[in-house]
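Handover notes (outgoing to incoming on-call)

Open items:
1. Zinc finger CGNR domain-containing protein: sequence verified, structure written out, both below. Nothing else pending on this one.
2. Nothing else urgent.
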Amino acid sequence: MDLSAYAEHAVRLVNTEQPARGEDLLRSPDDVPALIAPVRRIPSRVTDGDVARLRSVRTRLRAVFTAAAAGREADAVATLNGLLAEFPVHPRLTGHDASPWHLHLAGDAVGAAEGFAAIAGMGLAVQLATHGIDRLGVCRALPCRNVFLDLSANRSRRHCSDRCTSRANVALYRARRRAREPQPDRHT
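Zinc finger CGNR domain-containing protein structure tokens:
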């Protein structure tokens, strides 16, 4: 079982918010199933409290990525350790949907927000411990502030997606081109 793969759930949660664009994809209980479904069964009842809890976790996970990207390793680890203490994993051996026995990191009795937070926090902690803090990034293409995991062989990823990489490259090209163009004489 590759626990570091669960770090993608932390990325998904953080990226439900685009502060620079004024977008938030986690506004009501109706938004929670799309976030949680790939990780665990949706609880029969998702409340406004679950949304508020997930938004709080999202803010703290963003702080982990932001601190990591800024080279503030101790801050990132302290924030992540706080999340791990607040949302511990509750492993449970289970078999469902005709699949063989396997582990779930958050038991079914754990609420929507708590279970997702536990899984995301544990995955991010394993990712950090296994691959290093420099693998956590914040997209450098403005105004995007999505977070990502740098899984490249040479640790060179700087953007959350190919789209942002292309946008950043085009912006750099245009800036270089403008710098080479002769400036009009403003004194005439």
